[in-house]
Amino acid sequence: MRTSRYLKPLLPAIRGFVSDGSFFLCQNLKKRYNKAYMGTLYVVATPIGNLEDITLRALRILKEVDLIAAEDTRTTRKLTTRFDIGTPVIAFFQHSGIVSTASIIEKLKAGKNIALVSEAGTPAISDPGTALVAAAVAAGITVEPIPGPAALAAAASISGFPVDRFAFYGFLPVKKGRQKMLAQMLAEDKTVIFYESPHRIIKTLQQLADLDGTRFLMIGRELTKKFEEKLRGPVAEIMAELKKRPAVKGEIVVVMAKK
């Protein structure tokens, strides 16, 4: 019997019949259907200090989504209150674990649009949001960036060091591997940027000084905030200056000149 010209386009799907009775064609349609009805994860950058640095697009997205997943709900609520954003805020932080990640992924699969925000700056850059973004990508969920402030970019732009190439190390290990990483950073043939806690910055500078006290640094403290400060000079000199103070406070970004 001759095959009808109307059936010919369906032959590839029919030949794709598998033992469980499904068609490859149907499987592909199902995937497309699911993706069409899934929500979107928006990775939204928020100010690192000055709330005026929020972008118009970020404000629109935060108002339009169904939920905001925040690393620090208190910080995020200051932002939402300032700009009259009524979107519900849920917690998503470093110790939320797999359960929280799975819960958000299920909401996205159910069609909810969710904005991921960090405590400050761009999520997933030296930030627990990385795990959620990876899980969303693995699940076939659309992930969209809403770019804006980032502490590393702000510090790099005012450092005066060449940043056509640079190495970003995020936060240093608290204990294990710390000394090895510092030595690795000092050996880089490009500008190095890293974050440090105000409680550990003097210790870090001391460890750097023990290896190379003449290396030139720019330290940005409390960038974009009222008490913003930039310290420039060799490691040993900046360490001596900070040691004079009763305490070091605020968010810190260190930019180090190349070898």
Task: Write structural notes for this entry.
- The protein is 39% helix and 19% strand.
- With 259 residues, it is an alpha/beta fold.
- It folds into 2 domains: 114 residues, 3-Layer(aba) Sandwich (Cobalt-precorrin-4 Transmethylase, domain 1), CATH 3.40.1010; 105 residues, Tetrapyrrole methylase, C-terminal domain (Methyltransferase, Cobalt-precorrin-4 Transmethylase, Domain 2, 2-Layer Sandwich), CATH 3.30.950.
- A hairpin with a 7-residue loop joins strand 8 and strand 9.
- Helix 8 packs across helix 9 and helix 9 runs antiparallel to helix 10.
Structural key phrases:
39% helix, five-stranded parallel beta sheet, alpha/beta, 2 domains, five-stranded mixed beta sheet, 259 residues, Cobalt-precorrin-4 Transmethylase, domain 1, Methyltransferase, Cobalt-precorrin-4 Transmethylase, Domain 2, single chain
List the helices and strands and how they pair.
Layout: H1 11-15, H2 24-37, E1 40-44, H3 56-64, E2 67-70, H4 73-82, E3 89-91, H5 97-109, E4 114-117, H6 129-138, E5 142-146, H7 151-159, E6 166-171, H8 178-186, E7 191-196, H9 201-212, E8 216-221, E9 229-234, H10 235-243, E10 252-256
Parallel strand pairs: 1-4, 1-5, 2-3, 2-4, 6-7
Antiparallel strand pairs: 7-10, 8-9, 8-10
Helix pairs in contact: 5-6, 8-9, 9-10
Quick summary:
Helix content is 39%, strand content 19%. It is α/β, with parallel strands linked by helices.
- Order of secondary-structure elements: HHEHEHEHEHEHEHEHEEHE
Give the uncertain stretches in residue-range form. Answer: 17-21
Strand order of the largest sheet: 3-2-4-1-5
Helical proportion?
25-40%
- Whole-angstrom Rg: 24 Å
Shape: elongated
Q: What is the strand tally?
A: 10
Question: How many H/I helical runs?
Answer: 10
CATH homologous superfamily assignment of the largest domain: Tetrapyrrole methylase, N-terminal domain
Q: Give the termini distance in whole angstroms.
A: 79 Å
Mean pLDDT: 88
The CATH architecture classification of the largest domain is 3-Layer(aba) Sandwich
CATH C-level of the largest domain? Alpha Beta
